[in-house]
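Here comes just one.
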Amino acid sequence: MRGALGGSGVLLRRLREVMAAPVSPQERLDRLVVVIAGNLVAEVCSVYVLREDSSLELYATEGLNREAVHLTTMRAGEGLVGLIASEAEPLALSDAQSHPAFSYRPETGEEIYRSFLGVPILRGGAVMGVLVVQNRASRVYSEDEVESLQTTAMIMAEMIAAGGLKALSKPGATIGLDRPIHSIGTTLADGVGLGHAVLHEPRVAITNLIAEDPGREVQRLEAAIATMRLAIDELIERGDVAHTGEHRDVLETFRMFAHDQGWLRRMREVVMTGLTAEAAVERVQSDTRAKMLRQTDPYLRERLHDLDDLANRLLRTLVGKSNGVTREDLPENAILIARSMGPAALLDYDRRHLRGVVLEEGGPTSHIAIVARALNIPAVGEIANATALIQAGDAVIVDGQAGEVQIRPQPDVENAYKDKARLRARKQEQYRKLKTQAAVTKDGVEIQLQINAGLLVDMANLEETNASGVGLFRTELQFMVAQHMPTTAEQQALYDAVLKVANGRPVTFRTLDIGGDKVLPYMERLEEENPALGWRAIRIGLDRPRLLRAQVRALLRAGAGSDMKIMLPMVATVNEFLRARTLVRRELDMLERDGRPAPASLKLGVMVEVPSLLFELPEIAREADFLSIGTNDLMQFLFAADRENKRVSDRFDPLGIAGLRALRNIVEEAGKANCPVTVCGEMGGKPIETLALIALGYRSFSMSAASVGPVKAMLRALDAGKARQRLDAWMSSSDSAASLRPLLAALAAEMKVPV
């Protein structure tokens, strides 16, 4: 077999001639396998294509029984071909039949062939099929031969992606590229959105794959690498990393990879097989992506993102700007597809045309999720390999309620979701009719419903929902969407505007809750073993008092003559609250000394989200003017279960005995001290959870604007007294059920309460 690097150029030129010939798709494919077999001196060459049902179908062969074409199929993972498809790795064997995965198909007549070399047909890291060569004699395939076949497989991938084989598909056996995909991820923002995919960072379209002059292509690659390195170096050395929105440590990682000799040598080697520079970059990154996507180590997966970014930079340098839509020129019914996004990037898009967001990353408490909920845009995160699976223009359905994404759905699925969207719209209309109705239970208990906010755009939801105020204004979002640290004047301007829109309704401003997963692009990122338990929120404020004092100063000035409420996040001890209160009082004293008007009243509260505070409840309830429960973090810390970790996030239910007893303790101790208490975490915005909280004695809730209608509909049908009696009985029972959710759901059904 002569598959040396020099021979690859001959093979690619012959493949290009076959691709350009005016023949039918099947004849083209038949000629291709003959050319490949002849060039690699193999007795067999076969192409298997992945179908929409995830099986592999024999599409063409030279050497095996041609009557088996389009008849022989196998599941992913079945046989040697299925093994290659499932693992996305080449497989070279000198004695194929002795391999434990070997699967004999009598219709093919392959029993006489001992040697086997197969490579995955990859595009964007996604497997599209398998390309195989076989020989009668036992032999060891060289690295050059594997390389040559992989390069050929890339040509096959582009032919499949371009739709060149669609005409060969039998009814019900559509090629996998166009197959419908149902992916389950994590809900970021509720709602149902139907539309067509728009890539946040469009892949660069590569139209020229085969090189005329490999030497010239190496020069182009070297020049692009040098340009990319220079751009990264300049970006770091200019000192204006904040303006780019990229963290300095990320750029340093880019710089490290940009000088990684192994990665760069691999691209040079692929160019020498006969591909253009841009095709070589795409080929190497597709191979790398396929391998790393099958890794479970989060560090390795993070490195994949770095390499993806570098590859995209190289491709843009080689072929120029990608042909994606501009953010201002978003088409109608757009579903935005991205690996990850910051809140500022989402705000750049025309929200009138945006119907949904699909991310490879991002959890329900990430800042992108918070912004998506604020804008009422359905969003789903943790959809693996979304940017590779979804092509620009693909039909996509985002089900933010179920945390599911339908890619290229069948007509019946699309119609079902259209019905679901219409039903949701009718429900929303019913909720809007409740806008003027009082939030009072069936037995006359008044409930206060407020909204969560964090941007000025959120404030329009006050009128939309007729909420009684803003129970949680996340001030950190202003810092996250800015390209630099907001000045005191800029902060004051936002708080002034918020209070003006609130028009007398109360607003509770939470001081900066940064750290953990909320990293500001212009601040140094600290590597911590457990960032959620690390240096964040009030801990940063107390350690960097100038930062906290500047924000408090802006809040007090904005609240001049008004009632002002400020809440401190992540307080773990009463002492932390007392230290922060001293700082706030100093700022009040400064206002007086400077002759500036002060707020008409100031209430300083605490967000109860650290379990240690549960053991100082009497003291904190006496010292603080109000309490607000952050159920997201409180339950996460209470159960030591990371809410972003799918393996443990559903392991413990906040409606279990332990969680409910903790919440009952808080409301009872707050009541003894006559300290107002509000629930502002996710529990307060879910009807069945809110039912339980009302039964525990809570009377004030703050939630996303979209949750106000469903919660109000629930509580207006609820007999709070009856619910309390039942819940008390269940909680005092010796039967320690893992969760009271089923009992609460049965109670809701009994009382005809919509949950």
Summary: The longest helix spans residues 214-237. The longest strand covers residues 126-135.
